[in-house]
Amino acid sequence: MDPSAPVLETYDLGYAYAPDRFAVRHLSLALRRGEVLGLLGRNGAGKTTTVRLLTTLLPPTEGTAVVLGQDIRNGGRGLRSRLGVVLQSESLDFVTVERNLTLYAFLWGVPREVAKSRAEEMIELFELGPARRRKPWALSGGERRRFQVARELMHDMEILFLDEPTVGLDAIARRRILRYLRERARNGLSIVFTTHILHEADTLCDRIAVLHLGRLIALDSAEELKRQHGGAREVSLTFAAPLTGELRAELGRELTARGAVVLAEEPGATVTGRLAFQASAAEELLPWITGWSQLHGMAIERIGVESATLEGAFLGMIEANDDDAPEEAPSAGTARLPPGTGGLS
Amino acid sequence: MRLPPVLRLVARNFASNLDPLTIIIRFGQPAITIVVLGTMFSSIISTNVTGGTSYTAFLVPGMVAFQMITGGVVSGNLFWLDRRWAMVEQIFSGPFLRSEYLGGLVLTTMLFSLVGVGVMMLVGLPFIGLPALSPFRLGAVLLTVALGSIFFAGLLIALGTRLRSANAYFTIQSFLQLFVIFLSTVYYPVTSSTPKVLTVIFYGNPLTYAADTIRDSFNARLGPGDLVSLGVLGGLAAVAFGAAIWGFRTMDLGPIQ
């Protein structure tokens, strides 16, 4: 097999639960060796169905995919023995954590000695030491999730599918897992990763596929997605002196004329030297603002430009592709920012 | 050495799902029945009713037949719990075929039932001694239990593939278990004084054929009727196993509760 060849390719892949109910449709993408591909989308976008299709748990009703050189429609045990899958749902055996790990390795035919040492490694890596003699029902939600990822890593694989593996994990555990996955990817493991935590996808994934209503609406690196779909960003200006009502109104008018949306002040705010607005090409407005401030003798103390976030880009993509969604773009000259569009830099 | 997938699954079934308490209760309940019910009823039930043997001697083969229900229930529950805790999906995403998983369940049932046969005979030993089982008659007993296990396991697994609620599954399972046991010749014989309706129901129940065949094997009375019984049991086992295969092929692996 050509090492540069994709390890996974989908061709118009689709799955319909009923003749007119598609969970996934016309999905075409590829995954390279050692690449981490993120699958993002709202609930019901088709992420889990895609994982189930690619791991042969569901047969496609349209198109197909070639995974590790095998068509998923014919790929049975031979293909699955080269994959790892962490399912979205909790899957547990009723024995202790330690026994679960070795039992799972036994199922996969991992030699006993290898299984023992690997279990120790996983217990250490996923901080399951205090829970090693506990049974699944005695574990916390986060411990169960860590255990589930650890268990899947007990056997060798070429592609690892992780369906929301970090749900319920604290920030430290999440970071630890992501770092480990990044390391494994560097060593050649290809990873398909679904998540709703967009910061994770931004950190971990080489490329991100955005699914919406079962269709692929974007596939690119996080940086490129942010650049293309980042949408309006918030700019916050702080002048050295308070803005008079007249100057504030003039600046607002000029910014609106240049495509910006001036954000309303909090009700009851006293007159200050602050003004915030949203604009798609925020940086391009900055030279004009500097000129305006010099012209009016209003020194600028600080300019804060919100950094583009994957979340902002994601929301922009979903809104642009959501025919049923209500229009959220403000038509007037003032609006509040949508929640969660990231911090200022 | 790497075991074949089916045997790995069987080992996993025993290791992960059969805790000591479950095993003790599953085998302990019929064992206590032999000891208590056998002793108490032996003194009040005439041997004329039980074909010339003591009630305990009548009951032990019944409890041996009972093991196929025990095995079937264990298998059905194993499958249900695997489904409930998404282990079916997890296993299917690994290097296993659905047929291997099903084969593993059936083999687990048979092994469990056969161990149960041994336990029941051991418990009955102080009361009725060792039954004079020739290799042929022992084979008939084991074959009967094996076929019966496949029947009940197939039935419960097929049920488990269709139901999506634990409540429904366990209610139906308990209901089936109760009626199958009490409407059979496990505890009492069908005699000329048995009401016609009950006689018909008894002989519509595969456990009756199993209990009668095992009893005839124990008492060295195997005859052509028992061969017919085995044939009926084999046919029913094939139908139930077929239903389980169909259930597996069409099963939705989605979440259940």
Q: Estimate the global geometry of chain B from the Cα principal axes.
A: globular
CATH topology of the largest domain in chain A: Rossmann fold
Spell the H/E element sequence of chain B. HHHHHHHHHH
Please state the average pLDDT score of chain A: 87
Poorly predicted parts of chain A: 325-345
**Alpha carbon gyration radius of chain A:** 25 Å
Task: Provide the number of structural domains of chain B.
Answer: 1
Cα-to-Cα separation, first versus last residue of chain A: 46 Å
Largest interface (C-beta under 8 Å): A-B, 26 and 26 residues
Number of helices of chain A: 11
Shape of chain A: elongated
- How many DSSP-defined strands of chain A? 16
Order of the strands making up the biggest sheet of chain A: 7-8-9-4-10-11
**CATH architecture heading of the largest domain in chain A:** 3-Layer(aba) Sandwich
Number of helices, where a helix is a run of at least 4 consecutive DSSP H or I residues of chain B: 10
Query: Which stretches of chain B of 5+ consecutive residues score pLDDT under 50?
Result: none
Task: Please give the largest β-sheet of chain A.
Answer: 6 strands, mixed
Strand residue content of chain B? under 5%
Can you walk through the features of this model?
The complex is a heterodimer of chains A (345) and B (257). By secondary structure, chain A is α/β, with parallel strands linked by helices. Chain A has two domains: 220 residues, P-loop containing nucleotide triphosphate hydrolases (Rossmann fold); 108 residues, Alpha-Beta Plaits, CATH 3.30.70. In chain A, 34% of the residues lie in helices and 24% in strands. Chain A has a six-stranded mixed sheet with strand order 7-8-9-4-10-11, sandwiched between helices. In chain A, strands 1, 2, 3, 5 and 6 form a five-stranded antiparallel sheet that branches. Chain A has a five-stranded mixed sheet with strand order 15-12-14-13-16, with helices on one face. In chain A, helix 3 crosses helix 4 and helix 3 packs parallel to helix 5. Chain A is elongated. Chain B has 257 residues and is mostly helical. Chain B has one domain. In chain B, 76% of the residues lie in helices and 0% in strands. In chain B, helix 3 packs across helix 9. Chain B starts with a helix and ends in a 7-residue tail after the last helix. Classes of the chains: A alpha/beta (345), B mainly alpha (257). At the A-B interface, helix 3 of A face helix 1 and helix 4 of B.
